[in-house]
Amino acid sequence: MTTRRDFLKQMGVAAAGLGLAPLGSLAAGPAGANKTKNTGGDKVKIAFIGIGNRGEQNVAEFERTGMIEVTALCDVDLKGKQTQKVQSKYPKAKLFTDFREMFEKYSQNFDAVVASTPDHSHFPIAMMALEYGKHIYLEKPMTRTFIEAELLMQKARSCPKVVTQVGNQGHSEANYFQFKAWKEAGIIKDVTAITAHMNNPRRWHSYDSKMYRLPSGDALPDGMNWDVWLGVCPWRDFSAKFHQGDWRSWYEFGMGALGDWGAHILDTAHEFLDLGLPYEVSLTYEKGHNDFFYPYSSTILFRFGARGNMPPCDVTWYDGIDNLPKLPEGYGKSEYNPDIPASNQGDTPVANLNPGKIIYSRDLIFKGSSHGSTLSIIGDKAEEMKSKLPEVPKSPSNHYVNFLRACQGTEKTRSPFEINGVLSQVFCLGVIAQRLNAQLFFDPRTKQFTNNTFANALLSGMPPRKGWEFLYKV
């Protein structure tokens, strides 16, 4: 069995720290780690990490493919009511509350892992999966800090036989293939501005913005492994305000509305317009700013430079139920979109403006929703463009099948770490602007802010807690 002590020795980690150097010895993996070999049409043996709420949905989606065998289930709260359904469905699966133990003791029994856990735990789970040669499907956002995304991209490049996929499902649905086809046909060109908005009340907290300390400890649920839930984060007493979906509201654990929805709204524009990293990130509006949790409402401006023959592009993000963007003439109604999945944590009311985007080019304006929803052209030119629109190919596989086929060697994933990682870094920069309530200038070449020392410190965030530093490279 490979222990964390062995892992630490392999990485040459002498102390907690972070860096951007190539990961070198980490690519070799722990001695004795089982490297994934799954080709042809064999069922993919999967270990699920996080099996309540969103995790339960992901289990059901993967089961629906008929391509998997569930061999292990891991959750820090195995006695919680939210995890009972999945456990009862797979009584033969080995149970764990600590994913590190699962990798160390049981890695020979699965080919891939699916992680549906809070944002702050994405990096350690993904890094261990890559180290053990296990394919990894990771819920978005990919990471919680800029440098964590950098490290995972480096690590993934050093493990070319390991399949990675980030869970922005729209990257395998109609919008992905439409955007690609319209861009290649010259329909989408010369984009100068994008408005992205998420203004429904899903996961919006109502905490006091005058809060000056984190919530006091509540009674820990029976059997919950709180130490593993905290993971790399500093020790905090358990609070019900951190549990279930509420962790998303806190800077320490989640990525707010931007991290939650940005990957579903901006993913195709970011990839096919080659936006990369911005040179400016500014918080232009906020309501309820606080040191601990995300604002009730915020507007963030991302400014991207020219790329090849494409002009500079400004992306403006709006969140908050009272922070609606200006809509162009001819926009029409914002109707409920059935393609947007439920949160599995209660019904989501229909908002005045449903999550989506408006793309402004020099000649055309496009309207889009979220996830896999397709774009439409609005305004006077919509009718005359109909005959010029190219045929859009259908998706050969949804996001889950795409991942499993990639595990079997018959497809490539559409949202691997190497692609999604940069988008995740864009969101990390946006969160830093939210947190500092500032205008920030960023150098995409050096990957450093040029006008704010505190912002540079937040690229890595707090050092990992003692016992977790083995996942980071000095």
What does this structure look like?
It is a single chain. This protein is of the alpha/beta class and 474 residues long. It has 14 helices and 15 strands. It has helices spanning 4-11, 54-64, 84-89, 99-106, 122-131, 146-157, 174-184, 226-230, 256-265, 267-272, 382-385, 399-408, 417-436, 453-458, and strands spanning 44-49, 68-74, 94-96, 112-115, 135-138, 164-166, 191-198, 280-287, 297-304, 313-319, 356-361, 365-368, 376-378, 439-443, 448-449. It has a nine-stranded mixed beta sheet. Strands 3-2-1-4-5-6 form a six-stranded parallel beta sheet, with helices on both faces. A hairpin with a 4-residue loop joins strand 14 (439-443) and strand 15 (448-449). Helix 5 (122-131) packs parallel to helix 6, helix 6 (146-157) runs antiparallel to helix 13 and helix 9 packs antiparallel against helix 13 (417-436). The longest helix has 20 residues, at 417-436. The radius of gyration is 22 Å and the shape is globular. It starts with a helix and ends in a 16-residue tail after the last helix.
Instruction: Please give the largest β-sheet.
Output: 9 strands, mixed
Number of helices: 14
Helix share bin: 25-40%
| Alpha-beta classification | alpha/beta
Mean pLDDT: 89
Give the gist of this structure:
The protein is 27% helix and 16% strand. By secondary structure, the protein is of the alpha/beta class.
